Amino acid sequence: MTINQSGWKPTAPAGRGDAAGATFTGNKALMLEEPLIFEIGDDQTTGVDFAAGDVAGSRLGGLTRKNPIGLPGLSEPETVRHYTRLSRQNYAIDLGLFPLGSCTMKHNPRLNEKMARLPGFADVHPLQPIDTVQGALEVIHQLAHWLVTLTGMHSVAMSPKAGAHGELCGILAIKAALKKRGEGHRKVILVPESAHGTNPATAAFAGFSVEDIPATAEGRVDTAALTARLGPDVAGVMITNPNTCGLFERDLKAISDAVHAAGGYVYCDGANFNAIVGRVRPGDLGVDAMHINLHKTFSTPHGGGGPGSGPVVFSEALTPFAPLPFVERDGDQFRLVEEENADEHHADSFGRMVAFHGQMGMFTRALTYILSHGADGLRQVAEDAVLNANYVLRRLEDTLDAPFAGSGPCMHEAIFSDRGMAPGFSTIDIAKALIDEGYHPMTMYFPLVVHGAMLVEPTETESKAALDQFIGALRSVAERAKAGDESLKTAPHFAPRARLDETLAARKPVLVWKPKLAEAQAAE
Ligand SMILES: *Cc1c(COP(=O)(O)O)cnc(C)c1O
């Protein structure tokens, strides 16, 4: 079968959709099939008509392009429809509850969007003269003040563009501090087993070797094992608090004291700050550096790794090594400190994380969120997030195995295992069946310390009615898995795509479209 010019591939003879769901167009009612943009367009068409030029001869010298550029040519309506159709195949927080544990998929308030779109914020350019962007600098400065105050830390680097980027920023500051002390031989970073994969990846990327610290049976860091491993080769630890089992690391202060006494630094992964904002100040727990995901705790949009923002707060000890730039207040003016030698406070800065100043659009949204909640409102955010997660945990623990339910209340997320399902059934079957129920699945098979983990984070922005519906769906699917209902094995049945070969996709990703490949696939 070939792809015809207008892009659709007939999947059934002309006529009405048959009972098995095959249609002439491949569309299912208003869910439209969509080929790749290269399959719809061709490079002979463009969306723009230019008037014929009146300049004779080319002025490009030898630089005239010899071969077609290979871009798909589509008209404006074709382009708009292509991306709109693709967007409808996606799940979004604006469609429904998004229980992805550790990711804090909370509602993105529309007030944030309104503020970020004000022309004075939306249209600024990073190279504009400083006296024309005083308002934008004030936003960065105010947000920095809130982040430092809420965490009880000493300073903040605003420029990192995601949590993982923030981890790198913190670890590079630790590396610079060790070098300055003449202790560059400290090469080991200790990371608990339950850590997010970005933690060991960051430490390895920065040139450290990573050693695992085991978890206790109740899901927390084994403090005795950690302190026993401290020594002159240890640069520091990376600990997530609250941790990825949804539990608060109660020993963090004692751990920090031990790490400091042994000459190391404490990096805290602050991705789960939503559960404690307004209630706990990581600075009081001896943390030296911690990233804050503005797209988690402070309600800015998550977007395919794109528009994230991960400012890093620092202790007094690490502040001299933090990256540039900094926004500083000079009387009633704001200025940007861009050079190491600008003043004595930044001489030891390890450099820069990004070319400019960070994600201005996210700063505006996060500050809007903070100011619209106030200090008391932010505290309630944490309390409601924890309440919602405990509601999910207690309503489901009779149906799903909840390995740490006996350790007391959870924090912002509830964790379940695949224990008790019929032989041959696993977490993947529950996750896929949830898609049929209209939900994005929860985080699966993470953290690794729980077998077949299902990590559910409802966030504070879901109502009780929304939680009850989700709990009902998850209970129904879990009961089918316990009863060995074979139809679960082929779920989802109602989604445009069912079970993809995720291993092949990860091992051999096809990242570039090639006409040959498309023809071969179309002929199959
Ligand atoms: C989300 C997350 C990260 C990474 O943050 P990104 O902004 O996605 O780079 C790191 N650690 C934990 C625990 C997380 O939940």
Please, could you describe this protein's structure?
By secondary structure, the chain is of the alpha/beta class. It contains 14 helices and twelve strands. A seven-stranded mixed β-sheet has the order 1-7-6-5-4-2-3, sandwiched between helices. A three-stranded antiparallel β-sheet has the order 10-12-11. Strands 8-9 form a two-stranded antiparallel sheet. Strand 4, helix 9 and strand 5 (265-269) form a beta-alpha-beta unit. Helix 5 (134-151) packs parallel to helix 10 (360-396) and helix 10 crosses helix 12 (464-483). Residues 1-16 have low confidence and may be disordered. It binds pyridoxal-5'-phosphate. Residues 102-103, 162-164, 196, 198, 240, 244, 269, 271, 293, 308, 310 line the site of pyridoxal-5'-phosphate. Pyridoxal-5'-phosphate is lined by residues 102-103, 162-164, 196, 198, 240, 244, 269, 271, 293, 308, 310.
Number of strands: 12
Helix vs. strand class: alpha/beta
Main sheet attributes: strand count, strand direction, barrel closure: 7 strands, mixed
Helix count from the secondary structure assignment: 14
Helical content band: 25-40%
How are the strands of the biggest sheet laid out side by side? Answer: 1-7-6-5-4-2-3
Label this structure with key terms.
single chain; alpha/beta; 7-stranded mixed β-sheet; 14 helices; 33% helix; disordered N terminus; binds pyridoxal-5'-phosphate
Give the secondary structure arrangement, pairings included.
Blueprint: H1 37-40, H2 76-88, H3 110-116, H4 119-122, H5 134-151, E1 155-157, H6 163-180, E2 188-192, H7 198-205, E3 209-213, H8 223-229, E4 234-240, H9 252-261, E5 265-269, E6 289-291, E7 312-314, E8 326-330, E9 333-337, H10 360-396, E10 414-416, H11 427-436, E11 443-444, E12 454-456, H12 464-483, H13 502-507, H14 515-523
Parallel strand pairs: 2-3, 2-4, 4-5, 5-6
Antiparallel strand pairs: 1-7, 6-7, 8-9, 10-12, 11-12
Helix pairs in contact: 3-10, 5-10, 6-7, 10-12, 11-12
